[in-house]
Model the fold of this input.
Amino acid sequence: MRYSDTHKEETRRKVVRAAATAVRAKGPDGVGVAEIMAQAGLTHGGFYAHFPNKEALVVAALEEAFGQSARRFARMTDGLSHVDALTAFVDSYVSSEHRAHPERGCPIATLSSDLPRQGRAVRDAYEGGVRRLIARLASWLPEDRAALAPSLLAEMAGAVSLSRAISDDDAAAQLLADARLSLKTRMGIAP
Done:
């Protein structure tokens, strides 16, 4: 059977999307190549046609996960003023929806504690995503507050991560609401 000229790239994209979901859901060490390939509807044997090893797959998965988040937030904030974009971003990021779906959320809130045990290539991909998100946050802040972007991102990711560790949904929702108010107050955009 002859495949189209784009078949290999389409297959690779399918594997990377499945890996991005799986890695966010279970961490880089919590998933195996066979599981990811099965989620993509493929056999384990085809893996090496696309990646030399699991680390290369995790790098691609992280890049895709950060890319998915960036595209989602761009759709949400494009055309908004800086204040409205920042408000929309905080409201979406520090939310019960984000808490409930780590498999499609920001890799920072899901994977930060996993990264110290990963190889340099994986950490570099992760750090690149973190830097891009910090830059986006800084671009929405007034110039005199742009230096707050790293700590604001840490507070947002920490709030989501902590809320996931709390089994009481009402207590987790309150933690997220309190964090949103605190963040907006620090940014000077509280209602």
User: Anything to note?
Assistant: The mean pLDDT is 93. The radius of gyration is 18 Å.
